[in-house]
Amino acid sequence: MASESNLILKQTIVEYLLLSVEQSGGLLIVGPSGRGKSSLLRAIAGLWNAGTGRLVRPSLNDVLFLPQRPYIILGTLREQLLYPHTDRKMSDRELEQILQQVNLQHLLTRVNGFDTEVPWENILSLGEQQSLAFARLLITYPSFTILDEATSALDLKNEGNLYQQLQETKTTFISVGHRESLFNYHQWVL
C-alpha cells in the first residue's frame, strides 16, 4: 500500500485542444466546477508547468493574471495600485482617476491618502480586492489578461463597468466565470 506522500494523481485537464484568441478579443471558458478551467488558466498564465503538451502564448512579461482572490501586498495604497511595478511613477491625480474608474474612490479617505501603510487584508472586502486588481490592469495595460472568476464578489453593475473598461484597453483576455452576465463581454465561448 502506498503512503499518501508517494501517491501521484494524474488527471487529464485538456486533450486535443487547439485554441486561438484574436488580438483585443475575449474568450470565456465555462463549465461545471472541478473540470479544470482554473487549471487551464494557470497553465496559460505560466503558474503551472506540470504536464505535457505545447502551449504558445505571449511573453509572461506581457500577461497579467487576475485570480478570484487577488494578491494583496503589504504597503501603501500607491504600492497596491502600482503592483507589480511599485517603482513606477504616477501622480496622485492619475491614481485618483484610476480609483474612480473602478469605483474605489472612497478608499482615499478611508485609509488617509496614497502613502499610508495599512493592514489591507483587514480593510478590503473581496469585492474591493477584485476592483483593486482591475485598477492594476488599467495601470499596466498588459497585452494579455487572464481572469479566473475575477469579478465573482462584485455586483453586476460593477462587474459590467470593469469588463467594459477591460474591453476599452484593447487587451486580449481569457476569463473563467459562472455568471451568465459574462457572456456579454466576450466574443467567444469555450
Distinctive features:
5 strands; alpha/beta; Rossmann fold; 32% helix; 190 residues; 5-stranded parallel sheet
What does the model show?
The longest helix is centred in the last third of the chain and has 15 residues, at 126-140. The protein has 7 helices and 5 strands, in the order βαβαααααβαββ. It has helices at 37-44, 77-82, 92-101, 107-110, 120-123, 126-140, 156-168; strands spanning 26-29, 63-66, 144-148, 172-176, 188-189. The protein is globular and about 50 Å long. It is α/β, with parallel strands linked by helices and 190 residues long. α6 (126-140) runs parallel beside α7 (156-168).
Concise synopsis of the structure shown:
This protein is an alpha/beta fold.
List the helices and strands and how they pair.
Elements: E1 26-29, H1 37-44, E2 63-66, H2 77-82, H3 92-101, H4 107-110, H5 120-123, H6 126-140, E3 144-148, H7 156-168, E4 172-176, E5 188-189
Parallel strand pairs: 1-4, 1-5, 2-3, 3-4
Helix pairs in contact: 6-7
Which CATH architecture? Answer: 3-Layer(aba) Sandwich
Mean pLDDT: 88
Strand content: 5-15%
Poorly predicted regions: none
**CATH superfamily membership:** P-loop containing nucleotide triphosphate hydrolases
Structural class: alpha/beta
Oligomer: single chain
> What do we call the CATH topology?
Rossmann fold
Counting DSSP E segments of at least 2 residues, the number of strands comes to 5
Order of helices and strands: EHEHHHHHEHEE
What CATH first level would be assigned?
A: Alpha Beta
